[in-house]
Amino acid sequence: MSAQLFLDGVHRSFDGFKAINNLTLSVDKGDLRAVIGPNGAGKTTMMDIITGKTRPDGGEVLWNMSTDLTRLDEAAVANLGIGRKFQKPTVFETHSVEDNIRLALKAPRGVFATLFHRSDKAEEARVTALLDQIRLTHLRTEDAANLSHGQKQWLEIGMLLAQEPDLLLVDEPAAGMTDAETMETAELLKSIAGQRTVIVVEHDMDFVRALDCRVTVLHQGSVLAEGSLDHVSARDDVIEVYLGR
Ligand SMILES: Nc1ncnc2c1ncn2[C@@H]1O[C@H](COP(=O)(O)OP(=O)(O)OP(=O)(O)O)[C@@H](O)[C@H]1O
Fold it and tell me: Which residues does the UniProt record annotate as the domain ABC transporter (predicted)?
């Protein structure tokens, strides 16, 4: 097997409730994967387990089929090149867009440093390339505080990219975005995949459709269905868990 990330029989209960129940999931290097599922399906808990925030009661989470992430803490997981973007954007509001990226370039993985350093040419080229990728070149000298919600999300994605993650976990990026921002975010994540692996948890089906990628449906802590969005959304069991019939 060649999966970059392989969850094997993972369990986690909270007060007897099985939030993650024998979850097995495999993602290859460079994949773009959407994870969907009704409220309480275990999506956030799954991300928490991958990133070392929550320890499972059992099972393994293998990185490159060798390192069991469940034995590591959050900092060690981040250090392996696994970056996480939470739903709420966290950028340095009183710094310019380009300085936010510069700070992230200097920081150790998983921690944004708080000191500025002198920039060199290579670093400036990287800042320029990242700003271009996240579509914020025209706003590079603007304070981050003045960005729209969607632009702040892109900036934070850019800050994570500055840290060269191999795997990017993104939690509901489209929440609160305009329709145009939502579609641009899908394009951005598609442009990141291939070089990096991207796993996106999302509720917005227009966004998931725009991602045009393999979809995993979680339900009661395990995988209910997997395949294209058309494939999974045509299944009676998926329709049932979404519509509660
Ligand atoms: N720290 C915790 N303590 C107790 N129960 C928890 C904890 N974390 C999660 N749960 C429970 O586990 C279940 C799965 O929650 P989780 O947040 O992973 O679902 P989700 O699929 O991300 O849902 P949503 O789409 O609403 O964010 C829920 O019933 C939740 O209440």
Answer: 5-245
Distance in angstroms (rounded) separating the CA atoms of residues 170 and 43: 11
- CA distances (Å), origin 141, targets 81, 94, 97, 121, 154: 29, 11, 6, 18, 15
Which residues have a Cβ under 8 Å from the Cβ of 15 and sit 6 or more positions away? none
Domain boundaries, the chain: 3-243
Tell me, what's the ipTM?
0.94
Judging by beta carbons within 10 Å of its beta carbon (0-12, 13-18, 19+), is residue 245 exposed, middle or buried?
exposed
Task: Tell me the pLDDT tens digit for each residue of 65-110.
Answer: 999 999 999 999 999 999 998 888 789 999 999 999 988 887 665 5
Best residue for ligand 1 mutational test, from 39, 51, 88, 216 (most atoms within 8 Å of Cβ): 39
Mutate to test the pocket of ligand 1, among 11, 12, 43, 169 (most ligand atoms within 8 A of CB): 43
Residue 59 Cα to ligand 1 midpoint, Å, equals 19
pTM above 0.95, yes or no: no
Q: How far is residue 19's CA from residue 26's CA, in Å, rounded to a whole number? A: 19
| The residue to which tokens 């725009």 are assigned | 210
Spell out the CATH class of 3-243.
alpha beta
Q: What is the pLDDT of residues 130-166, one digit of tens each?
A: 999 999 999 999 999 999 999 999 999 999 999 999 9
